[in-house]
Design brief:
Length: 557
């Protein structure tokens, strides 16, 4: 007889179904998360066939949230957070207030009591960490100013949710004093609860920065000094997951916030890059389970039973919230493209909303229909998010074309501007690309750069270069750089798989192009060559060659 192994079953069903549907989505040129969500719906309890354990999947998904936020913290310093507080704090609060108001308005239309409207509105006003971070990461926007604002905004939403989760039971007590034996809660109780949450939050942050920081760095460097990769990775995971769990149980802080602080503390250490790198595969795997678990919660029947309700909910999440966020960012005099990015980032809801509706339902504050609408709104807004991001990025690119001055007379400097022929295209303006572009700037051959980071594109254009904003793995971006007329393509991005993708597209568009790419390991060299590169330069091999050359250059002693 098969042993009872629900954890393994959930992980196996989650991974396998996500892979199958993820691949199918990719075939259909849809973003993989659509596949993961669908996988969840299929293995969920509301559709026939296999049914995986939803609670367990949701718990596993939390590990994804923890690792993701931990990873973000590792890239984010305390200073970065403070640098965006002027916009993130008022922005997030104002947006929550307005979005909650919209939700309450809709609830009133549905004839629900005020308290239901409040829970419903709050649930619609807070965005999902996982969706937002993945969207930013995929487009290499995490380390940009807009990315920082979006993360700061998310942290504020997280803190507001923590307060909301604590305050809802108090509210329920206030509204239904007869239902509990204790005397009715008064203003004093409300204040006391608020103070307690605030106190715990402050205690947590202070403790982390005063004691936690030293202890954690000590632990990490101890593990690093052993020289054992296993112990190092283990120490990173123990710190991230352990602190998140400890923060949640001892201080009532969410897992996400606990993990974020754990990461931020490590950021100061020179080991943080290695730590971030080591947890990457686990993080990706568990983030996938997050989407599967969201899909599992979804009952597709709600689309038939409450189509208008679902539509209204989606409109609030996708249109209402983004419009408010856009306006707020603009009111704070940030550029339009930052506003567009923040608006797109927030046009979805996820895990915080589920927590709020679950609690609201348990407390009798929210009708079941409210939960169904929130879940419907979540799955549809998460599905739509990649498309919304694409639209926002296009609008942003168009804006940049309008706002940047043309560096080369006779050429408009928009994304569709590269009219050169026989030119060189450089992909990626990072450690390698920047050096290459700087050398080429003095040569007679025109150069066009492709880069995903707005800041880097902007800086390059300001210094007089021609740059295309976008991902070079897309045909239209390559065409915008004039790949069909170019002579050389230098792919200076660090990831082999991504470089292979860029090379394959470029080769298809221009069979005569000379393509040179960058790699770090032998397998990448083979992969990129197979996709059509003429030459792949492996950093490590070149370093070895130059080291030997240095010995040979010395006269024998
Ligand atoms: P580095 O890691 O310092 O070598 O920098 C790599 C640079 O390439 C970064 O500036 C990235 O934003 C950029 N980059 C990475 N992937 C792409 C891509 N697919 N298209 C365009 N730019 C990219």
């Amino acid at each position: 007889m098969l042993p009872h192994t629900p954890l393994i079953a959930t992980i196996a069903v989650g991974f396998v179904s996500a892979l199958v549907f993820g691949l199918a989505a990719n075939r259909l040129r849809l973003p993989p998360i659509v596949g993961y969500l669908l996988a969840g719906v299929v293995v969920g309890p509301f559709t026939p066939g296999i049914v995986a354990d939803g609670d367990m999947a949701a718990e596993l998904a939390e590990i994804g949230v923890i690792l993701l936020m931990f990873g973000v913290g590792l890239h984010f310093s305390y200073k970065d957070l403070l640098a965006v507080k002027a916009i993130a704090v008022p922005g997030a609060i104002a947006q929550i207030v307005v979005a909650t108001g919209m939700g309450m308005g809709m609830a009133a239309l549905l004839g629900w009591p005020m308290a239901s409207g409040l829970v419903f509105g709050l649930a619609l006003s807070v965005a999902s960490t996982v969706v937002l971070l993945r969207a930013l990461e995929e487009r290499q926007l995490l380390d940009t100013r807009s990315g920082h604002i979006a993360i700061g905004w998310l942290v504020v939403e997280d803190i507001v949710t923590i307060f909301a989760l604590v305050m809802l039971p108090v509210l329920a007590e206030l509204l239904t004093p007869a239902a509990v034996d204790a005397p009715a809660a008064g203003a004093g109780d409300v204040l006391r609860s608020l103070a307690l949450v605030l106190g715990k939050l402050v205690a947590f942050v202070v403790l982390m920065f005063v004691v936690g920081r030293r202890a954690i760095l000590w632990l990490l460097s101890r593990a690093a000094r052993t020289g054992s990769r296993e112990l190092f990775t283990l120490s990173v995971l123990a710190i991230g997951v352990g602190l998140a769990y400890g923060a949640a149980t001892l201080f009532g802080v969410s897992f996400a916030l606990g993990a974020f602080f754990a990461g931020m503390i490590l950021k100061g250490s020179e080991l943080s890059h290695k730590a971030a790198h080591d947890t990457l595969p686990l993080r990706d795997a568990f983030a996938v389970l997050f989407f599967v678990s969201v899909g599992m919660l979804f009952d597709p029947r709600v689309l038939l039973t409450q189509p208008l309700g679902v539509l209204g909910t989606c409109l609030i999440i996708i249109v209402g919230k983004s419009a408010v966020a856009y306006l707020i960012v603009r009111i704070f005099r940030h550029p339009g493209d930052t506003a567009l990015l923040i608006a797109a980032s927030l046009a979805q809801i996820g895990e915080f909303s589920f927590m709020l509706v679950t609690l609201g339902l348990n407390l009798g504050l929210l009708p079941e229909a409210g939960r169904d609408l929130v879940l419907g709104g979540a799955i549809l807004s998460i599905t739509a998010n990649p498309a919304i991001f694409t639209i926002a990025m296009r609008m942003r690119t168009r804006r940049m074309r309008r706002t940047t001055t043309a560096p080369n007379p006779g050429h408009e400097n928009g994304p569709r501007q590269a009219r050169e022929t026989d030119h060189i295209i450089v992909v990626g303006l990072g450690r390698v690309g920047q050096r290459v572009a700087a050398s080429l700037a003095t040569s007679a051959t025109p150069t066009v750069v492709i880069e995903t980071s707005v800041e880097r594109v902007d800086a390059h254009r300001r210094s007089g270069g021609t740059a295309i904003l976008g991902n070079a793995a897309h045909d239209e971006v390559l065409k915008a750089a004039g790949v069909q007329q170019a002579r050389h393509l230098l792919v200076a991005v660090p990831h082999g798989l991504e470089a292979g993708e860029i090379v394959a597209h470029a080769r298809r568009l221009n069979p005569g192009l000379r393509i040179v790419a960058r790699a770090h390991v032998d397998a990448e060299v083979t992969h990129i060559r197979e996709r059509g590169a003429d030459r792949v330069i492996m950093g490590e091999r070149e370093i070895a060659r130059l080291m030997i050359a240095d010995i040979e250059a010395l006269p024998p002693e």
